[in-house]
Amino acid sequence: MIKINDLHKSYKMGSNSLHVLKGINFDVEEGELVAIMGSSGSGKSTLLNILGMLDLLDKGSYDLDGVPIKDLDETKAANYRNKFLGFVFQSFNLINYKTALENVTLPLYYQGVKRKEREALALEYLDNVGLKEWATHLPSELSGGQKQRVAIARALVSKPKVLLADEPTGALDSTTSKEVMALIQEINKNGKTILIVTHEEDIAKMCSRIVRLKDGIIVEDKKNKMQKAI
Amino acid sequence: MKRLFDKDTWQEIFGSIQKNKIRTIITMIGVLWGIFIYIALSGSSKGLDNGFERQFQSIASNSIFVWAQSTSLPYAGYKSERNIILKIQDAEVLKKQVKNIKFIAPRIVAGVFGDQGGSIVRGTKTGTYSVYGEYPEYIKIATSKIYDGGRFINQSDIEDDRKVCVIGERTQLELFEDDEDPIGKFISINKINFRVVGVHKFVQGGGFGDDGDIYIPFTTFKKIFNTGDRVGFFMIAADEDADGVKVEKDIKATLKQIHKIDPNDERAIGGFNLGEIFRKTMNFANGLTFLSLVVGIATILAGIIGIGNILLISVKERTKEIGIRRALGATPAEVRSQIILESVFLTILAGVIGIILGALVLYGINAATMDQTDFPYTNPTVPIPYVLGALALMVLLGTLIGIIPAQRAVSIKPIDALREE
Where would you tag: which of B22, B314, B373, B398 has the fewest CB atoms within 10 A of its CB? Predict the structure, then answer.
């Protein structure tokens, strides 16, 4: 599903250049649930941003589902993101003046899906995460776990190839974290490829593969016996 | 373009506008105020324009009055302080020698310049009114209206020294019963019976005159009041396309020549150029219209710049939202068009409300000044092209000013926007 070859990325900080990713080789098969671990500064978020086409790579290649991701301009990146990827963020990133339902319909809006169709679809996905009754509520009326579940529904509604989650449980208490992870595991069980960036060991243990980054290179990449979240 | 007519686009825009009510209202007030000022000002100046035009409509716009006074300089053996009297024969000379005279109406009056008016008697009713000796040309210069069924003095009246008269509205009111038709009835002026042939509607015009004036044929006047060939003053209409100032100058020069007055004597021949005054007044009104246009457009401009400013702040405020939208697949073009459409939509909405408010105010002023004939203010309107022009200008400027925040929004990288916590 994902093929990454000799990926380099550096940032210019004034006159200094910060080499963040120093040659990453990394493949992900369809249906894997991968945890990308590392301390802060290890380059794990940069890797996720490049995977998510939110950032451009300097050197190397990146193929997603057989499509080489290169020569990205903003419009192309936006279209690929919309078609291939679903995002889940630590801080949920819901639009605060839109209801749960409206938030979930947004990716479909940018796909050009008709209003009725996208509302029906969004409601279906909200139902899948158990929030059908909360469809008309604003994010401010939802708990953290509920917000993250809305965000997950939003990430999935466009039927992406890959779900990218950046510290999805970082802002949640441990009980809620487990609930969200259970949901992610269930989605994975249905065949979705999922990448999670995290620095929590017990979250990583709930994934089928753990990749550890340190100082811009992969130091460990092992299969993991998936622990049930709940 | 397709996006413009897409219901979803608008729902998206309404959504973001509705959810930020205070911001939206503050943004709109700027433009609303601008267009309101524009409409109210240009409407008012148009009203003033119309008002001036109405005040002058009773008299040909190119008319000139000339009269004689006493000389201030000795000339050709005559001492100064000599009283000059205009003669009826002067009219013929003027017509021959001065170019561009369209009509010339010699007039004479009793009862205006301190002398005795005509004492009028009808049955038991009496009164004193100003009596004018008139030529038929007068009605062509001063476009007084004669009420239906009547007529003004005509050439035969002059030739036969007929004892006919045209009376004023007030004269009719004072001498006749309400339901009585005065036409064909007789009134006595200085003990001589005159047949009434018409009633004139009084319109406030240039100079003197009122609604009680009685007009009789010039030739009849000079017999009754024993004025010989004397003329009180000339009322002259120049050709429409002629230079009124030059015509006035030529007339005065000719009269000075006839009456042996020093060409440099400024006092002997008096003149009043209504065309010149009219032109100056209309210039003033036009200037006012132009000024109001400039002020109005400048205010609109300020309002639209305000919209751009607030949208810029709002883009900053919505950095994260824009980042989220970008992450979810919004293309730069979609983000840009949303911000621009928001700007244009706010501009137009505010503009339309402003136009309506402005129109209401104009309507109010019109209603309040409707019955005041003295106040030069009639029918304040803003021509449709002005309104459409202002709207087009607003759409254009709204788009242009929207580009700045839209460009700012597009330049935000989704990754930076999302990092901002």
Answer: B22
